[in-house]
Structure formats: C-alpha cells, structure tokens
C-alpha cells in the first residue's frame, strides 16, 4: 500500500484526482511508495514528478510520459492503468506500436493557415487521437495570415466531422483563450514542423519556457539544475505535454480511430448492397454513389482508403458487433455532416 498526504500536494496540478488515488490504493506497491507522474523516459530511467520534487526511478515495465506511477526505493513499483494511450507505428520492420504518451485527454492538431491543402495529415492525426481515447481539437494557427478565415475553418470542419475547430494567432492573441478552453486535462500539441506549436504552447503557458527548451529548477537535494520540462501545468488548469516524439506520427492498429475520423464514409458504407463491399466496382455501392452525387468529396474517400490500407483491416473486422455499436453513436454526427456537404455543393 502506498502513502500519500493529499494535504498541500502539488500532484493535482499535474492531473492527480480521486480516481488515481483509488487506483493507487488498490495497487500492490509496497508500503512507503510515493505517487508521481512520468515526465521523461530515457533508456533504463524515468523522471517522475512527485510531491518531493523530481526523482529518478528505474522502470520494471514499460513506462511512457504521462503515466502515473508509484515509486519505491528508486524503482517504479507500479504503473497505474492508463486511461488513454497515444501510440504511433513503430519504425519500419518492427511490429509493436510505440507509446508516445499516456493519459492524454486532449490532442490539439495544429494546421498552419495557408497549408490546409494538406488535409490528409489532419485526417491522420485526428484518427490517431480518437484511437488513443483522447479528444481531438483542430487548431488553425497563424490566422493573422489568413484572408478567408471562415472558408478555411469550414474546410477543416469537413475534414473532421464532430471535431471542434478553433482559429488562433499567437501574433494578435486572437483565439488563445478559445484554445486554452479546449485544452481540457492533459493536452498534447501535434502537427507539422513550423505550424506554430511551440509558439502556441508559450502563449498557453504565458511564458517563454519552451522557446528556451529548458528551465532552471531545484532538484531534490536543493541544488539548482537545468532540466528539460516535458510536463507543464497550464495556468488555466490542465497539463501540457511536450515531447519531441509526438511531432511526427504514423498510423497503425488504428482502425477504430480511422473509422471515427471518417464516420461519414463508414456510415455510407453500411448502405452498400454487399457487407464486404470494397467500394470499387460493386453494384449497389452507396459510397461511390455518394461521391457521384457530390455528397462525399472524392478526395476524402481516397484519403480514407489510403489510411485503411496502411492500417490492419483485420483487427476491426474481428469485432463487427462493437463496430456497429460505435457507428450507431456517430450517426447523428454523420447526418449533420452530409447536410453540410449538400449545403456546400449548392
Ligand atoms: N504570423 C504568424 N507566425 C507565427 C504564428 N505562430 C508561430 N509563428 C511563426 O512560425 C514559425 C514556426 O513556429 P514554431 O512555434 O517554432 O513552430 P513549431 O510547430 O513549434 O515547429 P517545430 O518545432 O519545427 O515542430 C516561427 O517563425 C513563428 O514565429 C502566428 O500566429 N502568426
Ligand atoms: Zn460500397
């Protein structure tokens, strides 16, 4: 059993709450274990933020940034069960996905104004976010450079049905509050290089921490040291996670996330005459019909097929019942979405 005084604890600023407390109480970690959140993972060592400061510990099993752990005698005695897992495809030739961050609640998918032709990337990242269990939010950055803001925001909304879309400029400050409001719980920023992630992070944090890349901190022996900070409490509540590995991601084992990101396509496919329709040349294909009728952009359909091909189709098929339950939940979203495509086609 672990011991933890909730009195004066800094852990809530990192996202600790009563359900983590419950999980910690029911873990089999030895007496005297202290709870903390993993801020950094190196080979053979993790950095854990605890009530007594930042401590190093040796992991016994795989840990990721964002994990809640119990530390005992310099060892990670327990990793509390994850609420969400953000993972990407492993380097080519390896089969396991790489966990980028654990217990992420919000994924801010950044798209710089002026490059929205690359919606394919947006769709991929939204799929990855849904798959993790977190909530994606689309963030159009650098809107001070955007002439047709309403048009671009509408374009993005079409690429991500059911996903909140916010515009922001770190130059004028417009939209920063909206992004802060959308950044619920533990938040990560993803998106292409140069999208303005670091700039936005600084605006959210109200500091220049990330520009510097490192801050002065007091270590557990009271010395001043320079450390990298990957887990930063936001002034508006919640925590921002910034790790380099989060910045370029692929998709694997993400059938569910892809289906959710493309709920409009999946919903149409349910109306195909054949349950295993590949939407190629089959008669009675509702997806092709929708593309022909301008109810579904052909580009979006191709993007869906491309992502699904990348992914492992088989996994999603093994549980058709779960899949159809999911689809029922998204039906309303996709209904709204089709109305929007139609309105736009006029
Ligand atoms: N006009 C304008 N420029 C911006 C804005 N936000 C960021 N920039 C500029 O865009 C460039 C890239 O910004 P960064 O914040 O470094 O982008 P990043 O996404 O962190 O890039 P990586 O670290 O490569 O992933 C910098 O020159 C910023 O000054 C904005 O709101 N408006
Ligand atoms: Zn079909």
UniProtKB/TrEMBL annotation:
InterPro entries, per database record: G_CP_dom, P-loop_NTPase, Ribosome_biogen_GTPase_RsgA, RsgA_GTPase_dom
Keywords of this entry: Cytoplasm, GTP-binding, Hydrolase, Metal-binding, Nucleotide-binding, Ribosome biogenesis, RNA-binding, rRNA-binding, Zinc
Enzyme class of the recorded protein, top EC level: hydrolase
Cofactor (UniProt): Zn(2+)
Main subcellular location of this protein, as a coarse class: cytoplasm
SUPFAM superfamilies assigned: P-loop containing nucleoside triphosphate hydrolases (SSF52540)
A Pfam entry, by short name: RsgA_GTPase
UniProt domain CP-type G: residue ranges: 93-249
Sites where the protein binds Zn(2+): 272, 277, 279, 285
Compartments where located: Cytoplasm
Xref: PROSITE patterns: ENGC_GTPASE, G_CP
Residues that hold GTP according to the record: 141-144, 191-199
Cofactor binding, note field: Binds 1 zinc ion per subunit.
Taxonomic superkingdom: Bacteria
Function summary: One of several proteins that assist in the late maturation steps of the functional core of the 30S ribosomal subunit. Helps release RbfA from mature subunits. May play a role in the assembly of ribosomal proteins into the subunit. Circularly permuted GTPase that catalyzes slow GTP hydrolysis, GTPase activity is stimulated by the 30S ribosomal subunit.
Subunit composition and interactions: Monomer. Associates with 30S ribosomal subunit, binds 16S rRNA.
Protein name stated in the entry: Small ribosomal subunit biogenesis GTPase RsgA
């Amino acid at each position: 059993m672990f011991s933890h005084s909730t009195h004066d604890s800094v852990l809530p600023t990192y996202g600790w709450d009563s359900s983590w407390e419950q999980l910690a109480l029911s873990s089999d970690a030895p007496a005297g274990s202290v709870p903390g959140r993993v801020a950094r993972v190196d080979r053979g060592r993790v950095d854990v933020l605890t009530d007594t400061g930042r401590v190093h510990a040796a992991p016994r099993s795989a840990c990721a940034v964002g994990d809640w752990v119990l530390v005992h005698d310099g060892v990670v005695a327990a990793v509390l069960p994850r609420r969400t897992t953000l993972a990407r495809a492993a380097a080519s030739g390896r089969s396991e996905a790489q966990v980028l961050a654990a217990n992420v609640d919000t994924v801010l998918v950044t798209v710089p104004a002026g490059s929205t032709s690359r919606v394919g990337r947006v769709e991929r990242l939204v799929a990855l976010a849904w798959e993790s269990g977190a909530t994606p939010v689309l963030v159009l950055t650098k809107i001070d450079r955007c002439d047709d803001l309403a048009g671009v925001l509408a374009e993005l909304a079409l690429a991500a049905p059911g996903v909140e879309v916010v515009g922001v400029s770190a130059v004028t400050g417009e939209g920063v509050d909206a992004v802060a409001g959308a950044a619920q719980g533990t938040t990560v920023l993803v998106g292409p290089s140069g999208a303005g992630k670091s700039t936005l992070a600084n605006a959210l944090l109200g500091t220049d921490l990330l520009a510097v890349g490192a801050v002065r901190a007091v270590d557990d022996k009271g010395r001043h040291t320079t450390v990298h900070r990957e887990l930063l409490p936001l002034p508006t509540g919640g925590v921002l996670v910034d790790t380099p590995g989060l910045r370029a991601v692929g998709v694997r084992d993400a059938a569910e996330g892809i289906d959710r990101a493309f709920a409009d396509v999946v919903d149409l496919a349910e109306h195909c005459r054949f349950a295993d329709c590949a939407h190629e040349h089959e008669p009675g294909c509702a997806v092709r019909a929708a593309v022909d009728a301008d109810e579904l952009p052909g580009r979006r359909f191709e993007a869906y097929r491309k992502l699904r091909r990348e992914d492992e189709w088989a996994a999603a098929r093994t549980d058709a019942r779960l899949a159809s339950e999911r689809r029922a939940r998204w039906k309303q979203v996709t209904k709204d979405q089709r109305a929007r495509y139609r309105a736009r086609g006029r």
